[in-house]
Specification:
Rossmann fold, about 15% strand, 2 domains, binds NADP nicotinamide-adenine-dinucleotide phosphate, about 325 residues, alpha/beta, five-stranded parallel beta sheet, elongated, seven-stranded parallel beta sheet
């Protein structure tokens, strides 16, 4: 029986898969129809696991790999990784922070501009001949010089804030802890931040601790002219409350890269022109996806050589 060093539960692209396999004895469980469940003793020698935020890493996966020392995950979210199990087992975990901030922030801005200025609707208006048939497109909402609120001023939140200053916007944020050394105002209450904001961008972590943080009172505070943007996780926003606020006109509009259920079925949002949707593609550019895969590979190599990950996450703090 082959003794494997690395288990790869998700393919990270042909270039990555080939380079990893050229260096180590890699068990590619994604090639098997039963995935990880199709293996037993082959997993016993594995020291490092490669996964993605979509495939996650569960308690059962930890239990199947008694020699496991590190999990290298592709993506920055860790809501699908069982960090408590990792901490209990003393397994180090890395994600791919930093390299995707620009693209996720760019997409937040694409959604913000598209929702405020209704660019997707305008595109359909021209392409389907409505311009000629109906004439002038309805008035939309100004962006520059307005108030930008950010829920979660982490790496991505800060990249979104920086872009806001380029649009001459006043920027404030809410998180559990105020940040030192940033030029943006802190709001201790999310409802107060929403009440102040013209645009509220959700950029905090997902998971149980932030579930439905954006609820009916927050949406009410944002108000009939307010626009909500979510590039974080669908779970952070109470989607039923969001739909209700949009339908009743209590909220002005929404731009969403993430939804509570993904991939979303033909959606209730379809009838709402004041909503812009994207299929969870914040980091999905060729350049950024390559940089993310590169950072996973660098983490695996660093761990194999030194026993240390390059971009570990703090396990207890983040759970
Ligand atoms: P980060 O640097 O760790 O920042 C996370 C922020 O969330 C921090 O400001 C943190 O501040 C705040 N936060 C955590 N718990 C909170 C709570 N209970 N209430 C309020 N704020 C809270 O993470 P990042 O790299 O910017 O990424 C942020 C998230 O973006 C990821 O976790 C992921 O879910 C999402 N994301 C989405 C895409 C996409 O494709 N759409 C791509 C990448 C990432 P405090 O600790 O002070 O509260």
């Amino acid at each position: 029986m082959t003794l494997y060093d690395v288990v790869q539960v998700a393919s990270l692209g042909q270039g990555f898969d080939e380079r990893l396999a050229a260096r180590y004895r890699v068990l590619q469980t994604w090639q098997s129809p039963r995935g990880l469940a199709g293996f037993g003793d082959e997993l016993k020698s594995v020291r490092v696991a490669v996964t993605s935020v979509r495939h996650g890493f569960t308690q059962a996966m930890f239990e199947a790999m008694p020699a496991l020392q590190a999990v290298c995950s592709w993506g920055v979210g860790h809501d699908t990784l069982d960090l408590a199990a990792a901490a209990d087992r003393g397994v180090a975990v890395s994600t791919t922070p930093g390299v995707l901030d620009d693209c996720v922030a760019d997409l937040a801005w694409a959604l913000l501009l598209s929702t405020a200025r209704r660019t997707a609707e305008g595109d359909r208006y021209v392409k389907t001949g409505q311009w000629r048939a109906l004439g002038q497109f309805p008035l939309t909402t100004k962006v520059s010089g307005k108030r930008l609120g950010i829920l979660g001023l982490g790496r991505i939140g800060e990249a979104i804030a920086r872009r806001g200053t380029g649009f001459d916007m006043a920027v404030r944020y809410h998180s559990r802890t105020p940040r030192q050394g940033v030029p943006y105002g802190y709001e201790a209450s999310l409802v107060a931040l929403a009440g102040w904001s013209d645009f509220l961008v959700v950029a905090c972590v997902g998971g149980a601790a932030t579930r439905h943080l954006v609820n009916a009172p927050v949406l009410r505070a944002l108000g009939p002219r307010g626009i909500l943007i979510n590039i974080a996780r669908g779970s952070v926003v109470d989607q039923a409350a969001l739909l209700s606020a949009l339908r009743s006109g209590e909220l002005g509009g929404a731009g969403l890269d993430v939804l509570e259920q993904e991939p979303a079925p033909a959606t209730e949002f379809a009838a709402l022109d004041q909503v812009s949707l994207m299929p969870h593609v914040g980091s999905a550019t060729r350049e950024t996806r390559e940089a993310m895969s590169e950072l996973v590979l660098d983490n695996v190599i660093a761990f194999m050589q030194s026993g240390k990950l390059l971009t570990p996450i703090a396990l207890r703090e983040s759970s």
